[in-house]
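My main concern about presentation is that the manuscript never shows what a single data entry looks like. For the editor and my fellow referees, an illustration may be useful. For illustration, here is how one protein appears when written out as sequence plus structure tokens:

***
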Amino acid sequence: MHRHFHHHGDRGFHRSRYGWGGRHGGEGREHRRGGRMGRFFEHGDLRFVMLALLEEQPRHGYELIKELEERTGGAYRPSPGVVYPTLALLEDEGLIRQTESEGGRKRFEIIEDGKAELDRNRPSVDQVFGRMDEAAQHAAPGRHRVGRAMMNLGMALKARMSRPVSPEDLDRIVAMIDDTASAVERT
């Protein structure tokens, strides 16, 4: 399958004819919080950061999202709409491969060509990790933990709402969310 990629400035990547579509915000602006650090990733940087994280250990896409959020102290969290297409691109380029882990989830690992590509770009990758470390140092304490908890809640709600929900169960879910919001406000 031939894939054709275009970069559209601040709109991000667009894969014509086969999906994806334009993205507002580009690689470096996805879910960025605080605004103090400017742009995290220039064009193509996220690819190499993901290769570096996969060099450390094989990971699922969700694990990559969590790791990027934690390494920036919660200042940056890429969406699945950025991470999974990037993984597909890296796989198409022959830099990573999929393996299955327990539960049949896709796990990705770097292969030799990916390691060679990463080595050729190591200085710029180290600079990006430096910017990520700086963001983590300036982040509000605990921000990434709250962001992770919110992401977990969102995923739990999405999973639960994908199945039939009785009116009584829906009332209980809404009440739990409302009660939690009230408790957070009182804290």
Observations:
- The domain at 5-140 is CATH 1.10.10.10 (Arc Repressor Mutant, subunit A).
